Amino acid sequence: MKKRRSRKKDKIPFFIIVIIAVAFFLNYYMEKEQPKTQPATSSNVVALFFPTDQYPETGRHIKEAIAAGESAICTIDRDEAEERRKESLKGIPTKKGYDRDEWPMAMCAEGGSGADIKYIDPSDNRGAGSWVSNQLEDYPDGTRVEFVFRE
């Protein structure tokens, strides 16, 4: 009989460890499933501090376009980006050694026809586009983003 009791006593720590492991797993899974950001509302705007020191031409273009009346707010809408890019670049010829930068960007609902276009260095434009994309990848469509520049 004593052997049975010791076996039961040996099993108790094992079951406690299993219960703790299951609790940690469930906690991790539940946290992972929750969205990292809340969808934007009309009063909720995410501030994105654009690194003009890394991408000076793109930063200058965005600031100039905003000063000329374009929106500083970008409402993320990835689904229609290619169509807006076609609209914004329509009639703007390509130029060897340059990219056609657009503001508002194609991924912004505000973009498309009538966007401000400027020829800039391809590495600056593509680097900036990649940086913005990486910064906003966890935000859902509909999120409103304000581009902010530190002077």
Brief sketch in words of this structure:
The protein is 45% helix and 15% strand. The protein has 151 residues and is of the alpha+beta class.
Ordered list of secondary-structure elements with their pairings:
Layout: H1 2-33, E1 45-49, H2 56-67, E2 73-75, H3 81-89, E3 99-103, E4 116-120, H4 122-136, E5 144-148
Parallel strand pairs: 1-5
Antiparallel strand pairs: 2-5, 3-4
Organism: Cohnella faecalis
InterPro entries: DNase_NucA_NucB
Pfam families: DNase_NucA_NucB
The radius of gyration is 25 Å
> What's the order of the H and E elements?
HEHEHEEHE
Overall average pLDDT: 85
**What summary fits the major beta sheet?**
3 strands, mixed
Q: Tell me how many strands there are.
A: 5
Number of discrete domains: 2
Helix content: 40-55%
Residue stretches low in confidence (pLDDT < 50, at least 5 long) are 32-41
Strand content: 15-25%
**What characteristic shape results from the CA principal axes?**
elongated
Q: Number of helical runs? A: 4
Descriptive notes:
- The protein has 151 residues and is an alpha+beta fold.
- It has two domains: 1-34; 45-148, no CATH class.
- 45% of the residues lie in helices and 15% in strands.
- It contains four helices and five strands; from the N terminus they run αβαβαββαβ.
- The protein has helices spanning 2-33, 56-67, 81-89, 122-136; strands spanning 45-49, 73-75, 99-103, 116-120, 144-148.
- The strands form two sheets. A three-stranded mixed β-sheet has the order 1-5-2, with no helix packed on it.
- The chain is elongated.
- Residues 32-41 have low confidence and may be disordered.
